[in-house]
Amino acid sequence: MKRSIASNGLILSAFALVTSGLIALTYFGTAEQINQQQQAKLQGILNAIMPSQLYDNNLVHDCVVVSDQPALGSHDAQRIYRATLNSQPVGVAIETTAPDGYSGKIKLVVGLTTDNSNNVNIQGVRILEHNETPGLGDKIDLRVSPWILSFADKTIESDKLKYFAVKKDGGQFDQFTGATITPRAVVNAVKRSALFYQQYQQQIFAASNTCLQNKPTVLTLKTAEE
After folding, report:
1. What is the sign of the dihedral through the CA atoms of 62, 67, 72 and 76?
2. Range of the domain at 61
3. For the chain, how big is the Rg over CA atoms in Å?
4. Is the separation of the CB atoms in 207 and 89 below 8 Å?
5. Residue 16 lies in a domain
6. How do residues 49-106 score in pLDDT, each as one tens digit?
């Protein structure tokens, strides 16, 4: 009896070792391919919200990381990808969060540039992650509705901030029938991101590139009073 139990235990152990080895081989064999696919997906998103003709650097590999920023809606680390042309600042693609979606947090990325008057121009916006209700709030997703494209070419002007809102709040953006909370959350997140960039753009571009670090250094931003 004892020999049978011991024999079965050895067989199970051997099976577990072989299975673990196969899983490890599969992971290491596909890790590079998965990473390439993720990089390609990221590049596609960034190209969609920051036209490639505006910059000549490698946008995916030029960024800073910020965290605990109320204006960006999250305490988590979020990346700001920096676009430059001939080594001169052009704009950013900034990860941000709408914490007040109808079904929770909405993660998005916003492409921003500035003009000669320091107004912030929105190049594009894409939703990265959401849990909004299918058929209602999920219209923020480009796969469901073109609504998110309405941000392109809009400008944030300090004296017209009240118009950067959904129409129900006196602004210019459509809300969804039966679902105002979701588009309102996204519109406000985009506005906060633009104002954040307007305030900190010099520090963002002055900071060292931390994109390729295994554990990126978090950029400490200072207000004018500090």
Report:
1. positive
2. 50-206
3. 23
4. no
5. no
6. 999 999 999 999 999 999 988 999 999 999 999 999 999 999 999 999 999 999 999 9
